[in-house]
Amino acid sequence: MDRYTPLFLAWAGAAALFLASQPVPAAEDLPLNGISHVTFRVSDLEKARGFYTGVLGFPQCFDLKKKDGSLFLIVLKVNDDQYIEILPNLKPGENERMTHISLVTASAESLYQKFVEAVCSRCPCGRRAVTARARCN
Question: pTM for the complete prediction?
Answer without folding.
Answer: 0.65
